[in-house]
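User: Structure tokens for this complex, please. No commentary.
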Amino acid sequence: MAEIAPRTLEGSSPVGSSDSLPPNRLLQAYRWMVLARVLDERCLSLQRQGRIGFYAPLSGQEGAQVGAALALAAEDWIFPAYREIAVALVRGVTLRSIMDQLIGNSTDLARGTQMPNHFAFRGQNYVSASSPIGTQITQAVGAAMAAQFRKEPLVTIAFFGDGATSSNDFHAGLNFAGVFRAPTIFFCQNNEWAISLPRERQTVSKTLAQKADAYGFPGVVVDGNDVNAVYLAVRAARDRAVSGAGPTLVEAQVYRFGPHSTSDDPRRYRTDAQVASARERDPVTLLKTSLIAQKLLEESADQAIWEDARRAFAAALEEAEKTTPLDPLSIFDNVFASRTPRLEAERTEAEASLRSGGAN
Amino acid sequence: MSELTLVQAVNRGLAEAMRADPDVLLLGEDIGVNGGVFRATEGLQKEFGAERVIDTPLSETGIVGTAIGMALYGLKPVAEIQFLDFIYPAFDQIVSELAKFRYRSGGQYPCHVVIRAPYGGGIKGGLYHSQSTEAFFCHTPGLKVVIPSTPSDAKGLLLTAIHDEDPVIFLEPKRIYRSVTGEVPEGDTRVPFGSARIVREGTDVSLFAYGAMIPPTTEAAEALAAEGISAEVIDLRSLVPLDERAVLASVEKTGRAVVVHEAARFCGFGAELSAILAEQAFYSLKSPIVRVTGYDTPFPYALENVYLPNTEKIATAARNSVRAG
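Assistant:
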């Protein structure tokens, strides 16, 4: 059997090469990453204070998410999992809109139907996320097939983690994409942990990227802490997809610094020392060091970036928290395009129950 | 008008929808060159090409997952699952995704996929080519579930399904794919959802059924008529949304109800129908509601005739219902 050796893009197009992110975009990437980090830290604390019900942090994955998002065009479709807040930010989703969903208020675009982190932002082609693992992968392929059918030159990208590579839809999705040469990018953020299960217990494959080999298209491994390397890998995958050459699997190797979610205690399955060691390659710090070395950033300007992010977050949070709560009867909306007689009757029943205080 | 079998009417409905709307496309296993294992898509790939009649790899979650992606994008995919018994690899996509997309996105992402699947027994199909598990889907908010029993309804309900804005599980009674024939009108003659069909009017007892149970239920009503019992036969056609008014009106008239389906009895669709009658037509009932259904066993192969409701079982149940009060 032939040796399976996925191409590694790390270092293949160093910063400063003509394809790389130019200084102004690199600096912008850094701002997005700082903003995502600030949001992440604040939301973990808000959950502990009971101001949001749940949160799934992304710290450690900012470089992978921002790099991938910067490589996409506005018309491309994002099929996220539930940890892709930095992607949403790059796409132009406002902090306010994110906070509306995390709180579940009356301006939440998902109308309070979902747990925090399960966003849908149609205006940014950011498709509704769900909790089941991997289901968005086949959907991204279907949307890509539809774009192909209509001869619209765009791509779809599915975001998922290392755990999802064991799911039914990962294999079905990659297989369909290979057969139909769908213009899809499979973007795996291998953060080493699927809740408590380490990457090496998920699969004995040497890499996750090599799984693409079985489906007949390229799989690449990229250092997910290097925003520019991720950008280059996803851009290459996008070019390939738009040219009609088919899909690519990109494995961005990162580390999940935080818990799986606010309901998880990672000390049950990994040591603080392991996390500390991973934090030595913190994508935010790596980029900051690189920007300073290139004289694109100074310490004082960096301070201002963090302060701006904190201020922007605080303002969005304040707005979102003072927004009115949802109309309780909105639970009957959007089940179908219009309410069936049965739903209409149940709505009337709920209305009466609310009026007599029965809802509490 | 032309005289068609039920499966030919399905084919006719698909062809007409595809001619009228370039966004309608089909995907499934063996539906292209082979025309489907029951020939429901016969000739369609030839007419519409391989890009609109897509033979897929053998993965139900792949079929439904990609159909969802196509629908989100704005196409109108009609997915075929070869047998309802094989739908379970796609159950996550149907229940967790398809049914909830509109809701969970606050209306931003409607997801209109039609899933066609032949269902039901009586064809010597054993455990895995015979089941009637419509209740799984009826129990999932966000899905519409329809089942035709005649060729004209097959075409009319299918056209409605394809033009609807919500996901539709379209179940085809394969046992009567070819044994039932009927006149099918030409053109866009949609049959609305949520509207039951009175197959036969009666005054003594209401017989509720759908799909492949309509022929034996109608035969039972004929046999009862010869004994002086006037049975009304209602073809529900659309389980979600259900025509509750028609169901209640019939029982308010007859005072007696027999519910017929092939699926296992416990938590089957008949349980819901019985509950609706008990809640809303209790004072009209002269005798207990009776269910004539498959037994609570897996679907047997050699002894499927023991398992399935038939004319005799239905007539006996109706007779007992009338004698009881």
